[in-house]
Amino acid sequence: MEMEMDYNTSLPKMIIPEYGRNIQKMIDFAMTVKDREERNKVARAIIDVMGQLNPHLRDVTDFKHKLWDHIFIISDFKLDVDSPYPMPTAETFQTKPDRVAYPSNDIRYKHYGKTVERIIAKGKEYPDGAEKDALVEQIANLMKRSYLTWNRDSVNDEVILKQLEELSKGQLKLADISLLRSTQTFVPRPTSNQNAAGRDNKKKQNNNGGKNNGHRHHKSNNQNFKRKPF
What we know:
By secondary structure, the chain is mainly alpha-helical.
């Protein structure tokens, strides 16, 4: 006796595969029940089974509401039962979300970013005085740090001051260029461990070089003392 097997490729497509084909068969059966009261009981039993198959939905707000939406979606919105929630329609899930408005503000210097520009705009509101001078000093050094993030080779302090004046439209100026910290302050130096590792590598290279030289010297001596024929 040969058994006839059904392959998924020959079966109808599942609308929500996460629930499996048995749930879809249950819902198809529920739509064939003629008595409305009995059909409501079958639908509620299917909802309970769907909740057991997907326990993670219990952490979702109104997870029962989501299960009822799913049962209607799987039935292609043809299941006629009394739901405790408004019955959705196909159009409900076909509506496209509203377009999200993204900021389109242009950044004058990408390496400084928008945050530096906002700080400069806020600094322009400060009244003249010691507090504003200290803020300008901090902004200038922040700009230098950001500049070195993208270019560690060199930085011109005059460029930093010029761009600070440009971004602030001439309202923020550093009183003394010497207030800018040195480049070494922002560029991290090798740690003591890195220095020690470098010395160890150099020492190993020297030792290997000495061994190789000795090996070559020994080889050349052997060549000089070849056995002469009698």
